[in-house]
Write the structure tokens for this entry.
Amino acid sequence: MRNRVFLDNDDINIHHNYNYPKPNIDKKRILKIVLFIALGFIGLNIFIGVIGLIFSKKETVPKYNTYSSPTNNVTDKKEELVYDWDYQSNEMFLDANGKPHLAVVGNLKKSTDRFNDEKNFNVYIGLFNPITSQKEWVKPLMETPVKLSSSDVKLSVFQDNNLYIIIKSKYVFQLDRKTLTFKSVLEDYVKNNENLSIGIAKIEFKYDNYGSAYQIVNNEGKTLVYYPLINKTIPEKQVYLEQRKKLPNPETKTAFVFSSKSSDFPEEKIQLIKYTYSYQYGYPKDDARFSWSRDYCRSGIFTDRDPYQKRLINNWMKEGSRIINYKDFTPNRLYFSAKVIAFNDSFVIITFKPTPAEDDMYQLQFLDPETGAIQKTFPTDLTRAGDKGYLLKDGFIIKNSSKYSYFDYNGKLQNTFEGYNPKFNQLN
């Protein structure tokens, strides 16, 4: 930069004139740089294209996008085969050694065939251990495929402690508790009883309180109640009379049951009843049901002005259940939503709520079967009183619908097994 100063005699101002030299721009150099960058970009794209072409030639089969659910695994894994029960029923029984088994009967479907319309309608039976939740075996029950619906499979344990199975009111099987083998028994029923020899059109289990029995419609359209353990058929309308007949060789048994809430006397509390009754293997019977009611001691239509007797069990029910005597086993105790789960010579196990509150959990209680004294009480997570109980060597199982809860004799829950759809991955 050059600085020039001019002086004027008549002017007191000093003027500065600054001149900056212009930069020397090399246009040819800039053009070369731009051209180099462009050529480099084109060369890079050609290189990438050649590499892609080389690798794409190695793929002889085209790939297609497939949907898969989100997963944390980087690599895809082959779907594991799992069997599901379809329209099944389940029931627990004890074998000859007192070991529990849960029997499940129904159709099966594979998890890998859930979109396959050609389903397998074979009927299978499976045994599971409710203590360990492990599968024991699953086998075909019958040779004829049968498409089942929700009410087509029924199971029941008779007084011989064997398990019986009815499929579609047409096929009947027995699972032997000694050998754990099964067989069809309907042919034997038809062959051994003349009232069934004309053929069976429909067969169902009779309610448990009737005893070990079937309700049968034969091929003449007659409805009979069949007691297979004594091979006896009874016309349906005569069953009530048969329940009240004197048994030929009875034995005396003891049982425990809670009374039900009374509609005639709602102020009466629920009572635990101990009773003795006459019993004979395989014969018709009726369960004892206790509830305070008005007994008018005759048939007819009654008003509040008619005379009656207040009874815990009426004479008709007492005769049908063949009761010898009964008593309030735990007088002055208060129970809510109570149930007798199981009993033997050592204890009576009951479940109940300590208060009528709906959100109260059930308690387990052990009672002395002779005196009614409380042996021990345990809290539980049970939300229902339980349907029935099974006494084992080291504990007991409470059934609630299709859920089986296994407790030790200290009242500690050891395992809960859901019998509705126990899954497994291999037939055997």
Q: What stands out?
A: Helices lie at 27-56, 186-192, 239-243, 315-320. The CA atoms of residues 358 and 383 lie 9 Å apart. Residues 1-23, 53-76 have pLDDT under 50 and may be disordered. The longest strand covers residues 83-94.
